[in-house]
Design brief:
Length: 475
């Protein structure tokens, strides 16, 4: 592989930093912890790590509410730690991809603090503001992804501001050229430090309808997820103008040597819409395929998604696949009902499809969702929708070894979220077992790399391939 196209044949590994490795005994993972586990990722055969947000945040949405885009949350470390991570990862031929959140900021970001100070504030037009209707109600019918309305009234200035997620996450106004210029600066800040690219949060939704028109109400003909939401997000998401922004960022990324990559959270459940985010090879390098991750675990259903995706993605594009992430139930729990045979089959499919696979930390050991009590909740979605636990069950600490702390933190330290059954599934035990799911995943990665012509140390045996076969009817 050339240094420019590593992402076409490499394996990307999603790290949730606060749950990966605690290096200082405070119960929260950090950047030093990620550095300490790079040898493991090299052993596994990983080509790049994608870190969920490490920038400054009050953590109303666990980092996806950014208060400073160019500094590091002190909980995780500092810019020196980022530089060390990039340098140490590079020594192991591992790239570092960061999360960027361009759709919204924290309500504690200095931009928004200034914006809400008066209607004439410099940053006022950096966000989406609108007058109430004559009866005082919100400007339109848009709904928040997290439930409830997408508008909050700011009494001192008498206008509503838009938030497609939490009220503490005001949406930026991407019609404003100063916002676009500022994000160019932010992107260059990180590219200049050596990050290999960005995973772009809400890549499909950053531009809003300029006229703020009402969304159409859902009908019986709409897909289940649309009916559940209550409306079709025609005007607050998936606007055609977003492609102009992505094309501009692609030009910016291509100016670097090697070119940086753009991996989009294109959370659309229609393959044809997903395919548009590749443009003509001038937008995203990789657009996440959420139709695949939400499909039933059956050969027919998954084959249909894959076939349609191959037809839709342009020849200059490249598929990207994943079976778990920080927002959906883990593959072991969602598809595989705690069956090791099924999870191996799912991971075999992920790692051998044409395209780039993205492993979510813990998938390689068959990590399942962890049971969460109400008093342990951190996720705002879980707090709103209890007894549904939200996303915390899929974000719990990595089990590195059996016993107290699970190798994630010191024994006796309370982790930020509960550990699962570390004695049943953990990295150390599975590394010693040549028949484990972890060993299987490593062998599949190694064999796939051999197929691409690279020298490898591991090779998947016929017995290991046969061990991946699932019970009939599962896939």
């Amino acid at each position: 592989m050339s240094s420019a196209d590593w992402w076409r044949h490499g394996v990307i590994y999603q790290v949730y930093p606060r749950s990966f490795q605690d290096s200082n005994g405070d119960g929260v993972g950090d950047l030093r912890g990620v550095i300490n586990r790079l040898d493991y990722l090299q052993w596994l055969g990983i080509d790049a790590i994608w870190l969920t947000p490490i920038t400054v945040s009050p953590d109303k949405d666990m980092g996806y509410d950014v208060a400073d885009y160019c500094k590091v949350q002190s909980l995780f470390g500092d810019l020196t730690a980022v530089d060390t991570l990039i340098r140490e990862a590079d020594r192991r031929n591992i790239k570092v991809v960061l999360d960027i959140v361009p759709n919204h900021t924290s309500d504690q970001h200095p931009w928004f603090v200034d914006a809400r100070s008066s209607r004439g504030a410099h940053h006022r037009d950096w966000y989406v503001w609108a007058d109430p209707k004559p009866d005082g109600s919100p400007p339109n019918n848009w709904l928040s992804v997290f439930g409830g309305g997408a508008w909050t009234l700011d009494p001192p200035t008498g206008q509503y501001y838009l938030h497609n997620f939490l009220a503490e996450q005001p949406d930026l106004n991407w019609w404003n050229e100063e916002v676009r210029d500022e994000f160019d600066r932010i992107i260059r800040h990180w590219f200049d430090r050596g990050v290999a690219g960005f995973r772009i949060d809400v890549a499909h939704g950053i531009v809003k309808d300029r006229e703020l028109r009402d969304n159409p109400v859902a009908t019986d003909e709409d897909p289940p997820h649309v009916r559940e939401h209550g409306q079709r997000n025609v005007y607050n998401m998936e606007r055609p103008e977003v492609h102009d922004v992505l094309r501009h960022w692609r030009q910016l990324a291509d100016r670097y040597q090697p070119p940086r990559i753009l991996l989009g959270e294109t959370y659309v459940l229609d393959v044809r819409t997903m395919g548009r985010f590749y443009g003509t090879g001038d937008e995203l390098h990789l657009a996440f395929n959420f139709t695949y991750i939400h499909a039933p675990f059956s050969a027919a259903a998954l084959a249909e998604v894959v076939a349609e995706s191959e037809l839709v993605i342009p020849d200059v594009g490249w598929p990207v696949w994943t079976v778990s992430n920080h927002d959906v139930s883990r593959v072991m729990s969602r598809w595989c009902a705690d069956d090791e045979r099924k999870v191996r089959c799912a991971l075999l499919s992920l790692l051998t499809l044409r395209g780039t696979p993205v492993l979510y930390y813990g998938d390689e050991i068959g990590m399942a969702d962890t049971s969460i009590r109400k008093e342990d909740l951190q996720d705002p979605v879980g707090k709103r929708r209890w007894p549904l636990p939200g996303r915390d069950p899929v974000r719990t600490p990595m089990p590195w070894r059996p016993g107290g702390g699970g190798g994630f933190t010191d024994p006796g330290v309370k982790p930020w979220l509960p550990l699962g059954d570390v004695d049943r599934r953990n990295v150390d035990d599975q590394r010693r077992d040549s028949g484990s799911t972890l060993s299987f995943v490593r062998d599949v990665i190694a064999t796939s790399r051999r197929r691409e012509g690279e020298p490898v140390q591991g090779e998947l045996s016929l017995d290991a391939w046969e061990g991946a076969v699932c019970s009939s009817g599962s896939t």
